[in-house]
Amino acid sequence: MTLHLKEIAAQPVHRHRARTIPTGFTAVFARCGLVLMGGQSRQAVAAELVLVVAGVEVILLRSIRDAAPAASTGVLLRPLGSFACLPAEHASAVVLFAGGW
Description:
- The protein has four helices and no strands.
- The termini are far apart.
- By secondary structure, it is mainly alpha-helical.
- The chain has helices at 5-10, 12-36, 42-67, 73-98.
- It has one domain.
- Helix content is 82%, strand content 0%.
C-alpha cells in the first residue's frame, strides 16, 4: 500500500480497502490473543471480545459511509458481509458472559 500512497489517499474506495483489510487482520489477531491469555474469567474474555468487535463495527461503518458514494455495489458487498457476522460475535460474547445456555 505504501508504494502507491498518493493514489490510495486520493480515492475513497482505495482508502476504504486500505482501512478495512488491516483492521480485519488486526481484529482477528486481537481476538485470538485475548481468548488465549490464561488466568482470565469468562466474563473478562467476553467483555474484551465485545470491545474489540464494537471497535471493528465503528471502523467498518465509518469506512463504508465514506466509500459508499464512490463505490460500486461489489466493493460494498464484501464489508457488508463481514459486518453481518459481527452481531453473531456480540451474541456469542453475551452467551459466554452469562455462562452458556
